[in-house]
Amino acid sequence: MNRRVFTEKSLKAAMSYGLVSSLIQTQAIGKHILPITNHWSIELNDFCHDLRKSTIGVMEWQQKVEDLFDKVPLQDLLNFIDFDQLIRGFNYPDLGVNTKKVTFPKLDGLPERTAFVKKIFGMKKDRAIIPHGHANMSSAHLVLKGGMRLRHYDNLRVEDNTMLIKPTIDKTIAAGESSSISDEKDNVHWFIAETETAFTFDVIMLDLDDKPYDIYNLDIQAKEDPNNGSFRVPILDVDAALKKYGKESHH
Ligand SMILES: [Fe+2]
Questions:
Q1: How much is the pLDDT for 38?
Q2: Cβ neighbours for 16, distance < 8 A, ≥ 6 positions apart
Q3: Would you say residue 251 lies in a domain?
Q4: Ligand 1 centroid from CA 167, angstroms
Q5: Spacing, Cα 57 to ligand 1 middle (Å)
Q6: Number of domains making up the chain
Q7: What are the beta bridge partners of residue 124?
Q8: How far is the CA of 98 from the centre of ligand 1 (A)?
Q9: Is-contact 217 238, C-beta < 8 A?
Q10: Is residue 12 in some structural domain?
Q11: How many angstroms does the Cα of residue 134 sit away from the middle of ligand 1?
């Protein structure tokens, strides 16, 4: 491919992904429009690759991904993942959430198989991503649409079908804002939609350190043994957890 054709292709791709504004800001300085080499999706993939290779730790990964989410114009990201198409005919469950796999467009420098799992999570008002903790996993969550109440807890330890946890975050979160979890920081999360519908974009790293990942659904309301701000909660099977936490009832 000669340089002119290559440039035209890149520009065409950029236009169809709604990247033109960032392209103009960062790459059209001077007389040549360069191919996109620093697209956020490539950066994101690099961070995930680094975590997989343990050249960065989970907390550093959390910080880098959240900083990146902060920096990327939300509309560029929505265009890139074709959000409108993803939520066309979206099947909102009565309890909890539904997910849809995200596919990135082809981009120079971006492997076809990214180093992370990517999905959107969608829900109706009062529905929840039910409270749960994780093992051998890290993930980051960018709100794409709507608003949610978000709570996080540190996982101090798992024992006898319970988890000892300590609250770390309790706030409302809106489109463009993000959060993340890992074994080391803010391990447990719980989202409840406060708007008609709400969506997150999720970047998920499974089986860290070559250990199989696990998920623990938690009965946060059944807290026991409060001690110095931490408390113990039972681990629930998914059906019981969905029944109790999948839909908020207002009395
Ligand atoms: Fe999770």
A1: 83
A2: 105
A3: no
A4: 16
A5: 19
A6: 1
A7: 197
A8: 13
A9: yes
A10: no
A11: 7
Q: How far is the CA of 5 from the centre of ligand 1 (A)?
A: 43
Q: How far is the CA of 88 from the centre of ligand 1 (A)?
A: 24
Task: Give the Å distance between the CA of 132 and the centre of ligand 1.
Answer: 6
Q: Which domain holds residue 170?
A: 40-245
Contact 41, 49 (CB under 8 A): no
pLDDT tens string for the chain (251 positions)?
455 555 555 555 555 555 554 544 444 444 455 455 689 999 999 999 999 999 999 999 999 999 999 999 999 999 999 999 999 999 999 999 999 999 999 999 999 999 999 999 999 999 999 999 999 999 999 999 999 999 999 999 999 999 999 999 999 999 999 999 999 999 999 999 999 999 999 999 999 999 999 999 999 999 998 999 999 999 999 999 999 999 998 76
Evaluate whether residue 201 is within a structural domain: yes
Tokens at residue 111, please? 């492997």
DSSP conformation class of 76: H
Residue 35 lies in a domain: no
Q: How far is the CA of 22 from the centre of ligand 1 (A)?
A: 31
- Nearest residue to 100 (alpha-carbon basis) of 82, 79, 122, 123: 122
CA of 110 to the centre of ligand 1 (A): 25
State the distance from the centre of ligand 1 to the C-alpha of 21, rounded, in angstroms.
Answer: 33
State the distance from the centre of ligand 1 to the C-alpha of 180, rounded, in angstroms.
Answer: 9
**Which amino acid appears at position 241 of this protein?**
A
